[in-house]
Amino acid sequence: MMPAWLEYHVLGNPVAGWLVAAGSVLLSIGLVTVLRSSLLRRLEAASARTETFVDDYVVVLLQSLRPTLIVLSAMAWALLSLELPAVSVLVCRWVLLLSVVIQAFRWVNTTVAFWVANYEKSHGAAVDRAAVTIITFAVRLTFWVIIGLETLRYFHKSPTTLLAGLGVSGIALALGVQSILSDLLAALAIMLDKPFVIGDTIAADTFEGVVEKIGLKSVRLRAATGEQLILGNADLMRGRIRNLTRRSSRRLTIALSVGLDTPAATLPRILEILAEQVAKAPHATLERAHLIAVTTAGYEFEVVLRIDTALVGTAFDARQMILLGVLAQFERERISLAQGAVTPGTFSQSAGAHSTGATAVSRVDTESR
């Protein structure tokens, strides 16, 4: 038979109930502490002998388990088994919830940090730090949102109802989050798909520049004129992007016009001169050389060549060498340019057009720089 003093009520509960609650708290704390210490010793010793990462992962999870949170959650759980006022019940529920949520946050952060460290260790210098940062942030944000939603459900609150209750502010918040998430996902796509990396020269719509930074919200370019261009990730990925750095070659078109006093028998020789000069130029390969028109100004020739380098300076040097060689050979063989010819240093800058009778020597770079 239970002693009478155990049936004595304190704060609305018998002493026996308080003792059972206290015993459950002590038992829970003792079990968790002993098991944590024992498992840590065994797993730390095992992880030192093995190369697997599973035991290492369990070790870091146990190390991130905080005794203070265990004590608080055990006390709150035990008190909820007693008859308490509504305010006390609410406080206990909040303490229990916060203890679990804080520990869950710690485990999420520990998990992400552990996998990132292992990924960097296995991949070494090949790790893209920006990509790792974005993926880490996205994973943590996802878990935090899930934990937040579950917290609302614990208190029987619907996220939809909460946003609806905010009215216009809720709509603005939802739209703002949508914009941020779209840019964040676009940044993740850039990092994983790698259409460009830092240091590449890209062209998007009417903008062109060198990529200086790939952020969570925007990509920053340095234009050739010196200013910094800031483009939103989502807007950038919705358009067409040209990566000029990854261009393996350049295709150039050189057009020239010789005078009508040039004998017809000399015209094939002009084609040979053009081919010879292209062959002498470094990195240059002749695609075709043709007489394309006979006008009142003269005979018009067109040479199409490919420069097997993406460096614009090298392409310009090769084009200059070809033009100077052609002019020198024309002078030796007394082949005159058409009337109104320009000097070798002056070229047409309009893409997609060839020389007229007023322009004896011109070039067309058929690709954007």
Characterization of this structure:
With 369 residues, the chain is of the alpha+beta class. Among the domains are: 4-127, no CATH class; 250-365, 2-Layer Sandwich (Alpha-Beta Plaits). The protein contains ten helices and eleven strands. The strands form three sheets. Strands 6-5-4-3-7 form a five-stranded antiparallel β-sheet. A hairpin with a 3-residue loop joins β4 (207-214) and β5 (218-222). The longest helix has 38 residues, at 86-123. It is elongated. The termini are far apart. Residues 341-369 have low confidence and may be disordered.
Summarize the topology:
Layout: E1 9-10, E2 13-14, H1 15-49, H2 54-63, H3 67-80, H4 86-123, H5 129-154, H6 159-166, H7 168-193, E3 201-204, E4 207-214, E5 218-222, E6 228-232, H8 233-238, E7 241-243, E8 250-258, H9 267-280, E9 284-294, E10 299-307, H10 312-332, E11 361-365
Antiparallel strand pairs: 1-2, 3-4, 3-7, 4-5, 5-6, 8-10, 8-11, 9-10
Helix pairs in contact: 1-2, 1-3, 3-4, 4-5, 5-7, 6-7, 9-10
